[in-house]
Specification:
Blueprint lengths: L1 E8 L2 E8 L34 H15 L7 E5 L3 H4 L2 H10 L1 E5 L5 H4 L1 H24 L7 H15 L2 H10 L22 H21 L18
Parallel strand pairs: 2-3, 3-4
Antiparallel strand pairs: 1-2
Helix pairs in contact: 1-3, 5-6, 5-7
Length: about 230
């Protein structure tokens, strides 16, 4: 089971997906009970994989755009990661073009710095979600959490984590809004040479050889070898 969240500020939106694993679920039909006590405005769709798929993400975008209501004269920027449902989805591109949504895809290996939900929202949300599960289990001894409790538990955690302060910090700390191209330090962009590990391996492999050479080499003039019984002792 996967949950898709959206954080937005005027003109910019950034979604993120988190997965809740409750065993293999082949659900393809939605039940209203699955959204009991879920956050207001939630959209629920099903897929047997439990993950976001192209057509499901398009449904999600339809839902978001119908609430945000962007236009070509008043557009929004949709900031996405490199998931295939975002980058290889022609239907999504057409939907965005018609509705005045500009898609920006984050470069690989930068989402931990620039995906604002990951930077500011997911940690408190997951903390509150774990606390909600623990509290529910204490109050319902002998029972286990199923899909029918997820909406309620998720809603409880979401209402605590989705604050104005968290959203503001997320946009500011990623440099998305206000736009700050100098938000990261130079060392965070340093490249790692592909030969670094190889040179380390060669060094470690060469070390025993040098030690062996040192053990088998002849003593220098004036030195005493403790391994040679014929060496005169003082």
């Amino acid at each position: 089971m996967a949950a898709q969240f959206l954080e937005k500020t005027p003109g910019i939106e950034s979604p993120e997906t988190t997965k809740h694993d409750y065993g293999k679920d082949q659900r393809v039909n939605m039940k209203a009970e699955l959204l009991d006590a879920a956050p207001n405005g939630s959209l629920a769709v099903c897929h047997k994989s439990g993950w976001i798929q192209n057509e499901r993400f398009v449904q999600w975008c339809h839902h978001i755009l119908s609430n945000v209501k962007p236009t070509k004269d008043d557009p929004v920027i949709l900031v996405l990661d490199g998931h295939y449902s975002h980058t290889r989805n022609v239907e999504l591109f057409e939907l965005a073009r018609v509705n005045g949504a500009h898609i920006v895809c984050l470069p690989p290996h930068y989402t931990h710095k620039m995906q604002l939900l990951g930077v500011a929202f997911m940690l408190p949300f997951k903390t509150y979600y774990a606390q909600a599960i623990e509290q529910w289990l204490k109050q319902n001894a002998g029972r286990v959490v199923t899909h029918y409790q997820v909406g309620m538990l998720l809603g409880e955690a979401f209402n605590k984590a989705a604050t104005v302060a968290v959203a503001t910090n997320g946009f500011r700390n990623t440099g998305l809004y206000p736009c700050n191209r100098h938000i990261f330090s130079d060392f965070e962009f340093q490249e790692v040479s592909p030969n670094t590990h190889e040179s380390s391996d060669h060094s470690s492999e060469a070390l025993p050889n040098r030690l062996d050479d040192a053990n088998t080499s002849q003593p220098r003039p004036g030195s005493i070898s403790i391994n040679d019984p014929k060496t005169p002792q003082n």
